[in-house]
């Protein structure tokens, strides 16, 4: 008995000592996790809008699998390229890649492409909560169906400045029946052939093309089959009385869109991973590369279903609206709503789109105050040009082209022959250039020169829109910055006044984003800190526009970038470098 008491006493002392040790040592409540994915990228025949064509899939799916993570988690994607005749690269849109610039996934900028049959490992940390995307970043592959969602939640125990019962994601897209190769050849030929308007609009990978409109009907009934279940409308089931956070994103190749839900208002609460001072809309304008979270309350008549629709704006398009179903449980998800689908706003109502842009402010309590002034101002004039007979898009009369050796590698290894060492201009002839006239621009050039930014400085970017080569035409351009977020300081109509318009900047509560539109014949002012070492693309997110040269590259802090993995090499000056 005495021996038992002594033994128990020793155990008690050991327990008390362990308790005292743990109370003195700081132990994290939740450890960041590693999220591991294995993806195979390959072509498969699919009929997302009832028309059968080759689609690039991930593990047989388009859109691909949704990446679900918490802030601070490490994402590992092991990618196998089974396209066999085509390279590939995937960009993690909105993920800043702090410390891992080689995982940004931008072919020609941060990595060599992944060749057919090869495996490649992307590894990065998702450092902020929010709604993000991934998509192909090689040629024009994104429009072939290689895209998906990234949803990053707050750590356990933390809350957001709004409440909801359920969380859902949808991606809006436009869809072309021609292959990316056909479109790319037309754009890059002396006998220029424009891609035209998309044949349909997809909501979460599903749309409906009218097979009766085919100009050359096929003998194969499966080429266009309206009864194919692959093109039945996407249905999102909701429980009456519940509130839903709907993460809506656009990855269109060409179109600006309006999204609306029959009978339901939407409260905008997040944009590109940043909380928004809430505001209510009946329709939400989205530009390619943008993500939003909206709250919707399932508070309508529960005996029926409702339409979710999307339609093209900013272009006088012939593309029919995209349709999906908001399914009120327990109605059948395939039960067609009894009402006519809601019509979207007029395609040419620029004022309504500008008003939404101006309404997006940072949520009180989550404001990241911008630096009061900039160290450098770069004005980027968006124009259409002819260079050596080829139709190109240009910035300050310079049309961008990718080098054979990715910038990140060339800069880190000081390969000065890998790209043009002359930087593009910081502006254009503000005084004499008429943004409302068809440009002459006979001095336009093609270059792969880059902007070199002093590390940790503040840079203002002024996007200036202008007339295209067609009279009385100016197109909306969504611009996306890799590796950074920027403050949106202002929008305006007409030509930017470099002396007076900065006085109107919003320096109090500007929203931070990674993708922003510049409206027709207008300007958009951005500010960012060049505080993420690497080489980063900044480009129009319309596939054909970037393919035709509408982009630039920024370099800063390259000496602070760690040792580059050999897996990103194997092309250009690094041809022959072993890729494990």
Automatic annotation (TrEMBL):
Its main location: secreted. It is found in: Secreted. Pfam families: Cu-oxidase, Cu-oxidase_2, Cu-oxidase_3. Its EC number is 1.10.3.3. It comes from the Eukaryota. Its cofactor is Cu cation. Keywords: Copper, Disulfide bond, Glycoprotein, Metal-binding, Oxidoreductase, Repeat, Secreted, Signal. Residues 1-32 form the signal peptide. The keyword Lipoprotein does not apply. It catalyses: 4 L-ascorbate + O2 = 4 monodehydro-L-ascorbate radical + 2 H2O. The keyword Transport does not apply. Residues 41-153, 169-330, 436-556 form the Plastocyanin-like domain. NCBIfam families: ascorbase. Belongs to the multicopper oxidase family. Dimer. PANTHER family: L-ASCORBATE OXIDASE, MULTI-COPPER OXIDASE. This is L-ascorbate oxidase. It comes from Prunus mume.
């Amino acid at each position: 008995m005495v021996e038992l008491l002594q033994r128990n006493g020793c155990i008690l002392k050991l327990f008390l000592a362990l308790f005292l040790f743990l109370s003195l040592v700081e132990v994290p409540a939740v450890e960041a996790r590693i999220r591991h994915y294995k993806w195979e990228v390959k072509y498969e025949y699919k009929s997302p809008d009832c028309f059968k064509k080759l689609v690039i899939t991930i593990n047989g799916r388009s859109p691909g699998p949704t990446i679900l993570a918490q802030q601070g988690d490490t994402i590992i994607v092991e990618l196998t390229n089974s396209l066999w005749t085509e390279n590939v690269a995937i960009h993690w849109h909105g993920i800043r890649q702090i410390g891992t610039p080689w995982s940004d996934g931008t072919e020609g900028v941060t990595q060599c492409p992944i060749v057919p049959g090869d495996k490649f490992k992307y590894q990065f940390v998702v450092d902020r909560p929010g709604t993000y995307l991934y998509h192909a970043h090689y040629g024009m592959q994104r429009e072939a169906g290689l895209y998906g969602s990234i949803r990053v939640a707050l750590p356990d125990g933390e809350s957001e400045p709004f409440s909801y019962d359920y969380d859902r994601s949808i991606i809006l897209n436009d869809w072309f029946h021609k292959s990316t190769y056909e479109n790319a050849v037309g754009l890059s030929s002396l006998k220029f052939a424009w891609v035209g308007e998309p044949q349909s609009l997809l909501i979460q990978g599903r749309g409906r093309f009218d097979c009766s409109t085919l100009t050359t009907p096929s003998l194969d009934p499966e080429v266009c089959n309206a009864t194919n279940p692959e093109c039945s409308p996407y249905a999102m089931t909701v429980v009456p009385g519940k509130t839903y956070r709907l993460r809506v994103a656009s990855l269109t190749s060409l179109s600006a869109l309006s999204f609306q839900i029959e009978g339901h208002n939407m409260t905008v609460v997040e944009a590109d991973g940043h909380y928004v001072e809430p505001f209510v809309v009946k329709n939400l304008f989205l530009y390619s590369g943008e993500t939003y979270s909206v709250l919707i309350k399932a508070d309508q008549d529960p005996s029926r279903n409702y339409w979710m629709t999307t339609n093209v704006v900013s272009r006088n398009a012939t593309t029919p609206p995209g349709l999906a179903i908001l399914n009120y449980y327990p109605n059948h998800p395939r039960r067609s709503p009894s009402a006519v689908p809601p019509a979207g706003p007029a395609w040419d109502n620029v004022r309504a789109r500008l008003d939404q842009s101006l309404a997006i402010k940072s949520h009180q309590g989550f404001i990241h105050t911008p630096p009061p002034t900039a160290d450098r101002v770069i004005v980027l004039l968006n124009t259409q040009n002819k260079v050596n007979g080829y139709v190109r898009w240009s910035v300050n009369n310079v049309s961008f082209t990718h080098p054979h050796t990715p910038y990140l590698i060339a800069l880190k290894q000081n390969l000065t022959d890998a790209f043009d060492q002359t930087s593009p201009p910081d502006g254009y002839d503000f005084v004499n250039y008429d943004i409302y006239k068809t440009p002459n621009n006979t001095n336009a050039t093609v270059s792969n020169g880059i902007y070199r930014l002093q590390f940790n400085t503040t840079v203002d970017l002024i996007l200036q829109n202008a007339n295209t080569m067609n009279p009385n035409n100016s197109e909306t351009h969504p611009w996306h910055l890799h590796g950074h977020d920027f403050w949106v300081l202002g929008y305006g109509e007409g030509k930017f006044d470099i002396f007076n318009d900065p006085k109107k900047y919003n320096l109090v509560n500007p929203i931070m984003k990674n993708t922003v539109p510049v409206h027709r014949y207008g300007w958009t002012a951005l500010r960012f800190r060049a505080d993420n070492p690497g080489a980063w693309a900044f480009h129009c997110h319309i596939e054909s526009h970037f393919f035709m040269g509408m982009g630039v590259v920024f370099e800063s802090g390259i000496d602070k970038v760690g040792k580059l993995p050999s897996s990103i090499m194997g092309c250009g000056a690094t041809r022959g470098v072993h890729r494990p």
